[in-house]
Amino acid sequence: MDICQKIKDDILNNQLPKGVPLRQNELSARYGVSRIPIRDALLSLKNEGWLVPNGKAGVMVPKLNWQEAEDLSFMRAELECQLLSLAFDRITKNDILSARLSLVELNENNLTLIRRGELNWRFHDSLYRPADRPVLHSTVERLNRQAVRYLGFQYGPLAYRQTSEDQHDMLLQFIESKNKNAALVLLRQHIEDAGNLLASYLKERV
User: Considering only 76-85, 97-106, 128-137, 147-156, which range has the smallest mean pLDDT?
Assistant: First the structure.
């Protein structure tokens, strides 16, 4: 696991404090590497939305925010439905097989949250990539990577894992049966329901 992944894993598992500046020398000692890879990792994580600026040149882990969670849900619902619509008629049997293989691994127990986030994106990516719209695709990928910070709630207090897994399976069934409208309706529901549930949960804890 590289330094970025280690830091992400520690953020997801509450091993790094939220709202407190991260010090490169402390992280260097924590992960047993020099400050150069730490600096590069922090810059990459800031660009992905895992960290936010603090002071002139510092960064920190942001506190989880219901408005951010809701905004991510809004953007993902619109853009991912657009991307699936563009991809739909170009999705091949190999694309569906790739998505199913991701689900097989995603449904296993004892995966780290980081790995679950990677597999969840790999599943959706298999269905979106045939659209061949690189700018839209890269934007959707960035939003998904940013949303991974909230994934622990799905598998923890919200107990949403089974619902998500069932919707993944149903989405593939609609795609295989060429039911485009049903697939798009389900994808929007898949994203919005989880987003609304998460936003409501976080609002109650403000």
Answer: 147-156
